[in-house]
Design a protein that fits this description.
The structure is a single chain. With 328 residues, this protein is mainly α. The chain is built from 14 helices and 2 strands. The protein has a two-stranded antiparallel sheet. Helix 4 runs parallel beside helix 8 and helix 8 packs across helix 10.
Length: 328
C-alpha cells in the first residue's frame, strides 16, 4: 500500500474544522459564562435556601437540624400563613388593573389625538422606583396630608375622614390601589404591543360585514392577544402573592397590612430565624408554581384552539352533542 507521507488529522480536530463543529464551539463559548453565572447566583443560592429550611439557624453561629419543623411552623403559626389572605386584596387589584389596562390599550391603539402623551403619562409610574412610590403614597394617605387636603377643599370635614392607613377596613384596599397605579402602564404597553400585531385587514373585513366596536374587540382583538392576557395574568397573580414594597414602605406591615413577604422579611432580618424564613420562601415558590400551572391548564382548556379553530371546551361540547344525537 502506497504511503503518502501526510498524517491524518484526528477525528475531533476534523470535527472542529467543519462549519457545524465551529458553530457548536462558538455556542458553547458564548453560553459557558452566562450558565456559570446563572448557576452561581441563582441555582446554588436556591439549593442552599432549601438546605437552610431544614435547620434551626441564624446568619452566624451553630446550626441544628430539625427536619420538617420549619414547614410545620409555616402552616401553624398565626402570623405566617394567614398573611397570604392579604394577597386577595392585591389579586382583586390585579384584575381591576388588567381591565383598566385593556381599556386604555384599546383606546390608545387607534389614532387618538395626544395618544403618545397619554401612553407616556400612564407608563411613567412604572419607571419610578418602588420605594419612592411607597414614600409618595405614605404622605398622600397620611391623615391631614394630600388626600385629606383635596377632600376638605371640596367640602369634606377632616374629622369625618378615616385614617386611610390605620383603619383596618380600608388600609389594604389603599395599598392595593398603589400597586394598580404603578403597574397599570406596564400592562397597557404590553397589550398595545400585542394589539398592534393583529392584522388590520381582519378589522377592515369585519367593518365591511357590519361588526360594531364591541364585536370587533371580542371576536378579533381578544383572540389575537390571548397569549399576552394569560402572561399578564400569571405575572399579576404571582406578583400579588409576593407583594412587598407598598406594605413595607407605607405602613411597615402594621395595622394588619403585613403581607407574607413582609412577615418573611421580619422573621429573617429582625427575629434572625433564617431557617424558618427559608421554609416560607420555599412554600411561596411552590404556591406560585401551582398557581402558574393551574392558569396554564385553564388557559389550555378555555383558549387554546386546534387547527379547526375550536377550543378544548368547544370540542368536548361538540362530542357530547354528537353522542346525544347518536343515542336518539
Amino acid at each position: 500500500m502506497k504511503q503518502t507521507g501526510k498524517k491524518q488529522a484526528p477525528v475531533h480536530t476534523t470535527s472542529l474544522r467543519s462549519i457545524r463543529g465551529q458553530q457548536r464551539l462558538v455556542t458553547v463559548l458564548f453560553m459557558i459564562v452566562p450558565l456559570f453565572l446563572l448557576i452561581l447566583f441563582t441555582y446554588l443560592p436556591f439549593a442552599k435556601m432549601i438546605q437552610f429550611s431544614f435547620f434551626n439557624m441564624k446568619y452566624t453561629g451553630t446550626r441544628r437540624f430539625i427536619g420538617w419543623q420549619n414547614y410545620i411552623s409555616v402552616f401553624t403559626r398565626s402570623d405566617i400563613f394567614p398573611a397570604l389572605k392579604l394577597s386577595l386584596f392585591y389579586m382583586a387589584g390585579a384584575v381591576i388593573q388588567m381591565a383598566l389596562a385593556l381599556f386604555f390599550a384599546t383606546m390608545l391603539t387607534g389614532k387618538l389625538k395626544g395618544g403618545a402623551f397619554f401612553k407616556g403619562a400612564l407608563f411613567f409610574p412604572y419607571l419610578i422606583c418602588g420605594i419612592a412610590v411607597g414614600y409618595i403614597f405614605k404622605f398622600f394617605f397620611t391623615h391631614g396630608f394630600v388626600l385629606d387636603t383635596l377632600l376638605t377643599s371640596v367640602g369634606f370635614k377632616l374629622q369625618n375622614l378615616p385614617y386611610w392607613l390605620k383603619d383596618t377596613r380600608i388600609n389594604n384596599i389603599m395599598l392595593a390601589g398603589t400597586s394598580v397605579w404603578r403597574y397599570l402602564g406596564q400592562n397597557m404597553i404590553m397589550f398595545i404591543g400585542a394589539m398592534m400585531s393583529v392584522d388590520e385587514d381582519v378589522y377592515e373585513a369585519a367593518m365591511i360585514d357590519g361588526a360594531n366596536a364591541w364585536q370587533k374587540f371580542w371576536s378579533i382583538t381578544m383572540p389575537g392577544i390571548k397569549t399576552m392576557v394569560v402572561l399578564n395574568l400569571i405575572l399579576s397573580i404571582s406578583g400579588s402573592l409576593s407583594a412587598f414594597e407598598p406594605p413595607y414602605v407605607i405602613t411597615n406591615g402594621t395595622f394588619g397590612t403585613g403581607t407574607y413577604f413582609v412577615v418573611m422579611d421580619r422573621i429573617a432580618h429582625v427575629n434572625l430565624k433564617v431557617g424558618l424564613a427559608s421554609a416560607m420562601a420555599v412554600v411561596l415558590m411552590i404556591l406560585i408554581i401551582l398557581v402558574t400551572v393551574l392558569q396554564k391548564v385553564v388557559s389550555h382548556l378555555m383558549l387554546d384552539e386546534d387547527e379547526t379553530g375550536h377550543t378544548y371546551r368547544e370540542r368536548r361540547a361538540e362530542k357530547k352533542r354528537q353522542a346525544a344525537q347518536a343515542a336518539k
